[in-house]
């Protein structure tokens, strides 16, 4: 029953990215300020969760070597994906460029939702309560991530139904990660520690490489507001 429950939590934590799409559609006109705040907020949350929750939890059940190895592996994984994908590093007024940016962010979010799901499954092996807390925390910031995926797609004049579908689909890898986390957690706590740090490395990489630069490219001051607000939100959640 616990496995079914944590699977449901992992699924819900993932698919709530669709709520971000609904919020983006409800906003209607998306200004540069709104785009910068939302991108900055998502990056602030991911950095906060990584530094305040995932890394400390990894260190608590292992040692700095395992934690560092997981962190580097997570960042390296995203780096390898990063260098094989086409990039749109500037926010242009052309609809096609916004659409391409949205698709790339969606892929990046889907990829890093996998180690996030691993974190849910792994922490559940420590305690069921910790697994639930991790799922809720990741679910909350996944809403912000869904907003970040949906906004460029909306600006690219992608159909609303397609925006919701793509954004929701990016969260499904969270469920797969949850199952992997439970599997590795049954083998050894060291695997749990490794994948917690792996998730942190992946999230910090995507924040540094994609979200923060894009947030500053449209409106730097509001990007800073979003980053600080997201980190403070993560601090409250931790």
Query: How far from one another are the termini?
Result: 27 Å
> What's the main sheet like?
none
Strand content: under 5%
- Overall pLDDT, averaged? 79
Helix content: over 70%
Helices and strands, in order, run as: HHHHHHHHHH
Main structural class: mainly alpha
Task: Evaluate the radius of gyration.
Answer: 17 Å
Tally of individual domains: 1
Number of strands: 0
User: How does the overall form come out from the CA principal axes?
Assistant: globular
Low-confidence spans: 88-93
- What's the tally of helices? 10
What does this protein look like?
The protein has one domain (2-26, 37-237). The protein is mostly helical. The longest helix is centred in the middle third of the chain and has 32 residues, at 95-126. The model is unreliable at 88-93 (pLDDT under 50). Helix 3 (32-61) packs antiparallel against helix 6 (128-155), helix 3 packs parallel to helix 10 (220-237) and helix 8 packs antiparallel against helix 9. Helix content is 87%, strand content 0%.
What is the structure about, briefly put?
The chain is mainly α and 238 residues long. Helix content is 87%, strand content 0%.
Key traits:
0% strand; 10 helices; mainly alpha
């Amino acid at each position: 029953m616990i496995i079914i429950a944590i699977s449901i939590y992992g699924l819900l934590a993932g698919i709530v990215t669709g709520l971000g799409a609904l919020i983006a559609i409800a906003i209607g006109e998306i200004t540069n300020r709104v785009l910068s705040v939302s991108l900055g907020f998502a990056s602030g949350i991911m950095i906060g969760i990584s530094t305040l929750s995932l890394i400390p939890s990894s260190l608590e059940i292992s040692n700095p070597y395992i934690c560092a190895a997981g962190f580097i592996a997570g960042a390296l994984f995203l780096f390898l994906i990063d260098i094989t994908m086409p990039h749109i590093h500037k926010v242009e007024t052309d609809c096609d460029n916004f659409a391409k940016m949205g698709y790339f962010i969606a892929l990046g979010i889907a990829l890093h939702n996998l180690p996030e799901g691993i974190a849910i499954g792994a922490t559940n092996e420590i305690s069921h309560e910790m697994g639930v807390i991790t799922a809720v925390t990741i679910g909350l910031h996944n809403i912000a991530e869904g907003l970040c995926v949906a906004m460029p797609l909306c600006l690219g004049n992608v159909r609303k139904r397609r925006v919701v579908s793509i954004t929701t689909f990016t969260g499904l890898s969270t469920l797969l990660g949850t199952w992997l986390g439970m599997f590795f957690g049954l083998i050894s706590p060291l695997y749990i520690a490794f994948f917690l740090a792996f998730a942190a490395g992946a999230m910090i990489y995507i924040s540094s490489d994609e979200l923060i630069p894009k947030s500053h490219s449209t409106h730097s001051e509001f990007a800073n507001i979003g980053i600080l607000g997201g980190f403070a939100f993560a601090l409250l959640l931790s």
